[in-house]
Specification:
Length: 134
């Protein structure tokens, strides 16, 4: 028997409560209403890692455990190489090992905030990273 579809009624427009104080996470204040994170954000942030895990699972099913284990150890070793704290790393070795160096993505031409060019005092940054406070 055919049943008519139920139309979704528009939700009531809510006014942001700007109280000027930080409330509990369950309160509907202005900050909590604006700090909503979309579900796809986490999916997009973890896309490359998810693709890598799928490729390693497929490689393990086809070749055995040795090849993915060797590739994982190479990637772990590549992540251990770093620079001084005031010089951000480009992670080029990790990109080469995962194959991301061959593709141009959104983060390559729109720039991520952590890769922004800002000059800081090298001595102050190194002292802070080592826990030396004078």
């Amino acid at each position: 028997m055919y049943q008519p579809s139920v139309k979704v009624q528009p939700a009531e427009v809510s006014v942001l409560n700007a109280t000027g104080r930080v409330g509990m996470p369950t309160e509907a204040n202005c900050l909590n209403q604006l700090a909503h994170v979309h579900r796809l954000r986490d999916s997009e942030l973890n896309y490359n890692e998810h693709q890598y895990n799928l490729n390693m699972q497929m490689l393990r099913n086809r070749e055995g455990l040795g090849v993915p284990l060797k590739m994982g150890m190479e990637r772990f070793a590549a992540r251990q190489v770093g620079r001084l704290p005031f010089l951000p790393s480009s992670h080029i070795m990790d990109d080469v090992l995962t194959g991301r160096c061959d593709s141009i993505g959104f983060e390559d031409f729109m720039n991520l905030p952590e890769y922004s060019e800002q000059m800081r005092q090298p001595h102050a940054v190194v002292e802070k990273s080592l826990g030396i406070h004078l």
